[in-house]
Amino acid sequence: MALYKEQSLKLYNSMTGEKEIFKPINEGHIGMYVCGPTVYSNVHLGNCRTFISFDLIFRYFKHLGYKIRYVRNITDAGHLENDADSGEDRIAKKARLEQIEPMEVVQRYTVDFHNTLQKFNNLPPSIEPTATGHIVEQIETIKIILDKGFAYEVNGSVYFDVLKFNKNHDYGKLSGRSLEDMIANTRELAAQSDKRNPQDFALWKKAEPQHIMRWPSPWSDGFPGWHLECTVMSTKYLGEQFDIHGGGMDLKFPHHECEIAQGEASTGRNPVNYWLHANMLTLNGQKMAKSTGNNILPNEIFSGENDNLSKGFEPSVARFFMLQANYRSILDFSNTALLASEKGFNRLMDAYRYSSQLPVSATSSFSVSEWKQRCYDAMNDDFNSPILIATLFEAVKFIVGVKEGNEQITTEDKELLHNTMHDFIFDVLGLLDTTITNQDNSEKLSGTVELLIKLRAKARNNKDFATSDQIRDQLLALGIQLKDGKEGTVFTLEN
RNA sequence: GGCAUCGUGGCCGAGUGGCUAGGCAGAGCUCUGCAAAAGCUCGUACAGCGGUUCGAAUCCGCUCGAUGCCUCCA
């Protein structure tokens, strides 16, 4: 029996502002769409957090036995930098600055995006469609919206008529805004365009002569509006109505609001059942953003080459750090927080590794099955990874207790404990065991260090502490730390 | 200015009407030739002011503060 039949999952629906019991349209199947990146520069850590959040969600659904189709787009058609007609396309601008083709920009940063997410151990989505690969479908959708009377053409551009749409629909229901308030608070901008009113948004834009990325359409040589691709591609691959739509918090308005409008205008149906929004990663209390330069690149985390960092960190440590906060909370990035996570991460991994070799007893002093369900309870409560991690640390404490002889575990429970930890640490949280220990190192290195450990033990037996301390201190200077325990000495390597 | 979210112990960060979050740091102890490591024990916090309640960090109101969105943004 599939696990999802035994577990009741609740998720926080941004549309209603409440945690709701999750019920997919088709039992056992899930369609999930997540807004992907605009590939005109390297992904920064804030972008990664969103995709790690949805990777956690994707992984948990898979773990529960759902058959899930996860669609995440690549925005490779440039969005305009501002709303005025003279605005420049971001990708075209980057191409101009780097003196290359726009699609070279797209290719370069798409590859970077994939490489980076792979380092964080994100699973690839089921389908990763591109905006430029769906120009035809976007034109078709514009035609439908025009036919239904929710859009108008002006000078080769097509705009969505928000005022008209709002007469029979609720524009603003996702972000909690009312159109009246928006109109009341509109600051009149000098360079207003062909729009009938400022809340309208482009479905198709006529390209200025210098605009490189352009396609023919019934209205003009131009390019699709920024919100349309997600509507079109989610509909194409998941249907007119699907289960989950996710994305960064900053996309809630206007992007997702516009998607709802486009979907309802073209199909008459509310496209999405559950809206999930991942919150921002901040740096120095401010949102990380490409445009402001307030950001950290993943490679800087790995190498430590950034003024905010004292050292480099493994991708899994950064991932663990992010998963210690709920995906809906703002998380502030800092070196000290990352250092704390690294220690906790290592302790968790040490305990996991040891869990397979625990000494067994006739009884258990800890209810492993009850603990296992609490792991599920945590994830069932809107993917509460911090609670899951806290629960895993209960097991860590217990494992240490068994090791020290203060707790007991049966053979059966030991297997259940080890397997459950494996499932949650690796399959659900998506962490990688990158901790460097003597088990992972080359035989030559570990053989050498073992030899030094023996020599040191011999020196200590002879009370030759000068020699023993020399071995210990010089190894430490090389980044090899000796740890004396009851059962002898082990070592760890600094990474 | 409008809309929204949030304000938790030294730091990060859960929870949410009565019951220990967790991690890191710190303190004491054990172990140790010394140290490190490891283990054990320890914190009574919820912005401020009112209100509801037998009882509120948790609900309501106000004040203050922070952040996000309102223009592209994960």
Describe this structure in words.
The protein has helices spanning 45-63, 90-98, 102-119, 135-147, 162-168, 179-184, 228-238, 252-267, 298-303, 315-323, 335-354, 368-380, 385-403, 411-428, 443-461, 465-477; strands at residues 10-13, 18-21, 29-34, 67-72, 151-154, 157-160, 201-206, 222-224, 242-248, 272-278, 281-283, 286-287, 331-333, 480-485, 488-493. The chain folds into three domains: 10-278, 3-Layer(aba) Sandwich (Rossmann fold); 282-428, Isoleucyl-tRNA Synthetase, Domain 1; 443-493, no CATH class. The chain has 495 residues and is α/β, with parallel strands linked by helices. The strands form five sheets. It has a four-stranded parallel beta sheet with strand order 4-3-9-10, with helices on both faces. A four-stranded antiparallel beta sheet has the order 5-6-7-8, with helices on one face. The chain has 16 helices and 15 strands. The chain starts with 9 loop residues before the first strand and ends with a strand. The protein binds one RNA strand of 74 nucleotides through helix 1, helix 6, helix 8, strand 12 and helix 11.
Briefly characterize the structure.
With 495 residues, this protein is of the alpha/beta class.
